[in-house]
Design goal:
Distance between the termini of chain B: 12 Å
Number of domains of chain A: 2
Strand content of chain B: under 5%
CATH superfamily of the largest domain in chain A: Cytochrome Bc1 Complex, Chain C
Order of helices and strands of chain B: HHHHHHHHEEHHHHH
Shape of chain A: globular
Radius of gyration of chain B: 27 Å
Largest interface: A-B, 54 and 52 residues
Distance between the termini of chain A: 54 Å
Number of helices of chain A: 16
CATH topology of the largest domain in chain A: Cytochrome Bc1 Complex, Chain C
Structural class of chain A: mainly alpha
Oligomer: heterodimer
Structural class of chain B: mainly alpha
Helix content of chain B: 40-55%
Largest sheet of chain A: 2 strands, antiparallel
CATH architecture of the largest domain in chain A: Up-down Bundle
Number of strands of chain B: 2
Chain lengths: 404, 314
Amino acid sequence: MAHFTKATSVKDWLNQRLAIEKVEKVMASEYWIPKNINFLWAMGMVLVITFALLLVSGIFLLMYYQPNVNLAFDSVNYTIMREVDFGWLWRHVHGVAASVVFLIIYIHMFTAIYYGSYKKGREMIWISGMLLFVAFSAEAFSGYMLPWGQMSYWAGMVITNLFSGGSLHADGLVEWIRGDYVPAQAFLNRFFMLHVLLIPVAIMGLIGLHFGALRIPHVNNQDGEEIDFDAESKKYLAGDKAGSKVIRFANDFMSKDMMVVAIYLVFFFYLVFFHYDFAMDPVNFDPADGLKTPTHIYPEWYFLWSYEILRPFSTNIGLMAFAFAQVIFMLLPFLDRSPNAVPASRRGLFKFWFWAMLIDMIVLTSMGKVPPIEPFGTIGFYAALTFIGLWILLPIITIFEKKA
Amino acid sequence: MKNKEPLILVIVVFFSLVTYYLVEPFAHSQMHKHVESEGFAYADLPSVKTGDATRGKDLVMGAGACTGCHSIKSADMPAPMDAVSAAAAYGVNPPDLSNAGAVYDAKFLNALIKNPAHALMVEHKFDAAKGQMHPMVAFYGAGGDIDQEVADMVAYLQSIAPKADKLTPKMAFETACGRCHAVRYEKWTQIGETPTFKFKKDALAQKIKVLEYQDSLTKYMGKLPPDLSMYIRSRGEHYIKTFVENPQNYLKGTAMPRVGVNAEAADKVIEYLEDAGDAKRHERTNVGINVMIFMLVFVIFAVLWKREVWRDLH
């Protein structure tokens, strides 16, 4: 057992038991971040804040929400929106944050792709990040079921149907997932459980893994420069703050993080109070009705690109393309064969690959929402082929990339 | 080294806005038919004569005229039947006419009295040649100039109706929509607002009445007209207004009649639906402005703190 002395202060008392000074150093004041970064590096903190907003607003909503097919719709639209003081605020914060969090995730992802932050020891950061993307997608989908509106019901019907596997006709699997032949009480209850317990717990664990994965390879910088963190941090601690290539996480980097967060929150709350419709589909304000299929069924905007990879093909090919789209980003560190971990602008053909991928995903997103009439059907079909083609091309163009 | 942040910000904002434009305004313009409002002008209906309310009163109150079926509570004319029996007889309870002059457009009322199925745009449902008579009997004239007589009746209804500023959202909704549509978030049923009962058996008796009424209405309309509690969020003001103006524009062959409200009453109906489905809208705007001010102040402090910390780092 360790030796304890009579404490001289509360801080000393805690220090002997929890080593709070050491923790503070490891987590904040001597957690070294490269100085050569731009505001895109603050997206992690923006995501943490958005997740906190989702968690807090979700806790308040959970106090009044009723996971029952007869009560769910009214518990949201009447009890929370009308009866509970500021219930409307929590709901709009939750709904808008659920949509905006994906915008930030996509910015965060494309930042990592552009700057090559998934290479040379940073593979686990990328993989844990993609696992977070999967977990957030499941969280968003399960949450979308809860108001039990028309889109909840029919999106639940369509997405669970995917598990029948087309010609495999695994209808038993679909029934097992639903707990019924159609989305009903058992379905709502289990998605409620997933949304408020299992997936949030998984997300919090994955956030821990994602942060942990950063410790050894350190944060990347905007020139892909390899920094000797030990030497640079000694320089900083010796007083040469301007000459050192690294800065403390707190308060140096955090002050910049918080500046970006503050500007982001202006945008976020503008959406919450004055422009929330994009995040709360009108169709979902009609109560679920299994006898009345909505004219257009489409997922929320952040799933549209993968939906459009499914849609233009026949059932079996579409499902295979869809499955491909779900896993392929995870494999990015291994499909990119280039030894260079530098920004895309200095990487030859990969530069064009990056912008082509970004634009193709926006085209897919757009075509995923509009009805599959011409010319949208054709545009969507070729955009889906382009998506698959780009991933097949990636190892080929990167293997010939010259060492920068 | 050159500061690339402004350029990066422009690129991020540009691609975000392009995506927003494509999935919201553009996609919705492709999914939904756009119908321009006609401004509640009812241009397809003929223009009307100036009426005389005194003569109109005799026609409205006369034997076999309006009050044979309609109540006028403000003129102490009770309904001949209760709502449930009336719905069993006609399919839907004929409206009380106290507010009709304020809620309905004058041209529409004139046309309605002369040919209900035509004014209501439900001729596809009521074809006299096939013996499908509209439950409201057309007025065939009292012996004089029928156009003048109808104008007199409308003038009388307008004379007893509340002035525009006295017409509440609830009155407008009840007269125009409330006999077919329930709004459960406002405790509104097709037979009126559900009171609070002391005894459960009274509450159940009321519920049975509502169900009986709804059964008749379902038979009459083909399906039970939807509850409108959340329509302000699920359909929005523009859709509701243009739908009410001419339901056939959106749903060819629908049993929903043209309602014939005037522009002011349409605004009142919208207000009623906003109170039901978007009750906290004023609070939202007020809180929103305060939060925006707070956040802008927060930005100023955040920028100052960052500059303070980074002064030594450059």
